[in-house]
Design goal:
The complex is a heterodimer. By secondary structure, chain A is of the alpha+beta class. Helices cover 22% and strands 26% of the residues of chain A. Chain A is elongated. The mean pLDDT of chain A is 87. Chain B folds into 2 domains: 2-119 and 171-255, no CATH class; 277-370, no CATH class. Chain B is built from 13 helices and 2 strands, in the order αααααααααααααββ. In chain B, strands 1-2 form a two-stranded antiparallel sheet. The two termini of chain B are 43 Å apart. Classes of the chains: A alpha+beta, B mainly alpha. The A-B interface holds A 80-82, 84, 99, 102-104, 106-109, 111, 113-114, 118-123, 125, 133-136, 138-139, 165-166 and B 163-171, 181, 184-189, 193, 253-256, 267, 269, 272-274, 359-360, 363, 365-366, 368, 370.
């Protein structure tokens, strides 16, 4: 008497044929995976793009010549352009100063007459030792590691920095005694 | 003529010019009754009449004409970079003059019981098309002609390719950032380059929420908001535009200060040995070495900054600014104080540097934290 009530939509309808619930979820996950993969790949290549293929950068560690090449009491500006360091020799030895102003990163100039490094951007001034004394720079210039190579030349290693405010100028490598 | 030039050079030294401007400012834009009285007495309000405009124009032009025929100032003035600054000085003065003229005019009308000049009959409409659009079109064409003529007459200020080892001396920011560069002379980059610009923008956005006086809405009026006028004008004209002018015309090699008619001597020596507050206190006053603990060393500086920014407004709310505090409520009052005091921290720090060679109030280079 009672007939089975069959919902029209679920039987023999076209949509049910090719795609059931399981299949739908499978396709959905595949779609999402593909989307995530494509987006991820896109962003990976974007990030990769930020890093240059070739770095036109001089070596961070380099020889600058023999200790006798440097006159006592002089600031040597020969290495400023290529390596961004000043090499200074005083009565006791040699140190290498970074040419980056500690205020906002401009490159100061060594003024021989005034015996100071003076930054043209905001007027910070540093003494020959690198210690700040005028303008807004809050700390002295940083020093780099200096040591003697086996052939007697001086090696400057810019990967090592010595900050005065952390007491690192006391470290032996920051100053080459001669 | 040389006498005038030397006088201008002398007056334009930052200590003197900045002080003169700061002292003159409350008389020009009087924020209180007393200043208002003096303003009336000395006839300073006449600046905002047509005659006043004529004399301002004549004196500024006189200065630039002398400058044009001066061998040193000519070099700075005619630099393609600096021509917009000269235009800016004129346009800025004109805009201030126009606003003040309208404001005084409206104040007088309201005193007589009339409606302000900007009041329009709601039935009296101006159509966007064609009335406004035509005006805009004409302005557009004129401005384009002006820009084309400018670009033909004056070459672009292009320089040699950038070289990290050679910083131009002096090294100047684009003209609209010279105010920032001047602030950087007195503050650490994180304050002058980050906190101050954010505060300037947020502070200007906050103005409508700070000034809740309904009178004066929609029309120029000086009387209704004279304190607001004074604070805004001081921040804009002195602490921004004037710093741009200083940076453009008065800063020379090694960022030294030069008068407009002075030769830019690259070897000018200005003795500027700066000292931190901690050194003043511990070394000069107490005759001891600096303590090794950072907090002990900078305690005075911290006390000064916290006292200035947080305790002083509290005390003022109880005493001198009691009325303001009650009228504004705690939230509005503290916001106003925070932005206002930060703004006035700039001239305070400038004077401390000029007068006492004070470098930083709090100096912790170990943490990149200097105020």
């Amino acid at each position: 008497m009672s007939e089975k009530v069959i919902p029209k939509a679920s039987i023999n309808s076209d949509s049910g044929k090719g795609l059931n619930r399981k299949g739908f979820i499978g396709w959905l996950s595949l779609g999402w995976l593909a989307f995530a993969g494509a987006t991820g790949g896109f962003f990976t290549s974007m990030i990769r793009f930020m890093f240059p293929n070739v770095l036109f950068e001089p070596p961070q560690s380099f020889k600058i010549g023999y200790p006798d090449d440097f006159a006592i009491g002089k600031v040597d500006t020969r290495f400023k352009k290529k390596y961004a360091v000043w090499v200074v020799r005083n009565d006791e030895g040699i140190y290498a100063l970074s040419t980056v102003c500690t205020h906002l990163g401009c490159t100061p100039n060594w003024l021989e007459v005034e015996q100071k490094y003076k930054c043209p951007c905001h007027g910070s001034g540093f003494r020959k030792t690198g210690v700040h004394f005028e303008g807004p720079a809050p700390r002295p210039l940083e020093r780099h590691s200096v040591s003697l190579a086996s052939d007697g030349q001086i090696i400057v290693d810019k990967t090592k920095r010595f900050k005065w405010e952390k007491g690192e100028w006391e470290i032996e490598e920051s100053f080459l005694k001669i | 003529m040389n006498y005038i030039k030397n006088l201008i050079d002398f007056l334009s030294a930052p200590t003197i010019s900045f002080t003169l401007l700061t002292v003159a400012f409350p008389f020009i834009f009087p924020p209180t009754d007393w200043f208002e009285k003096k303003n009336k007495q000395w006839g300073i309000y006449k600046l905002w009449t047509n005659k006043g405009a004529f004399w301002i124009f004549i004196s500024v032009t006189f200065f630039f004409v002398i400058g044009y025929f001066d061998p040193y100032f000519n070099l700075t003035m005619t630099k393609p970079d600096n021509i917009p600054i000269i235009l800016m000085i004129y346009s800025m003065i004109f805009v201030i003059w126009l606003g003040m003229k309208k404001a005084y005019n409206n104040d007088a009308r309201l005193d007589r019981g009339e409606k302000p000049e900007e009041w329009n009959d709601p039935d009296d409409k101006v159509l966007v098309w064609p009335d406004l659009v035509y005006i805009e079109l004409i302005a557009l064409i004129l401005f384009m002609v002006f820009l084309i003529v400018w670009s033909i007459l004056i070459g672009a200020p292009l320089e040699e390719p950038a070289n990290p080892a050679a910083t131009p001396n002096p090294s100047k920011a684009p003209w609209y950032f010279l105010g920032l560069q001047e602030m950087l002379v007195y503050f650490d980059p994180w304050i002058a380059g980050i906190i101050f610009p954010i505060f300037i923008i947020v502070g200007m956005m906050a103005i409508p929420y700070m000034d809740i006086n309904k009178k004066g809405d929609g029309y120029y009026s000086f009387k209704e908001r004279r304190v607001g006028y004074f604070i805004f004008m001081y921040g804009w004209v002195v602490l921004w535009v004037f710093l741009i002018v200083i940076g453009t015309f008065f800063r020379g090699p090694n960022w030294n200060f030069f008068g407009p008619f002075e030769w830019w001597d690259p070897h000018k020596v200005e003795p500027l040995t700066n000292i931190n507050l901690s050194e003043y206190v511990w070394v000069k006053l107490l005759n001891k070495g600096l303590p090794s603990s950072i907090f002990a060393r900078e305690a005075v500086g911290f006390a000064a900054v916290i006292g200035y920014l947080f305790i002083m407004p509290l005390l003022l709310a109880k005493t001198k600014l009691k009325n303001l505090f009650e009228h504004y409520g705690p939230v509005r009052y503290s916001t106003l104080m925070l932005f206002g005091l930060t703004m006035f921290a700039l001239p305070i720090k400038m004077y401390l540097r000029w007068l006492f060679n004070l470098k930083y109030i709090i100096a912790i280079p170990e943490w990149f934290f200097n105020i």
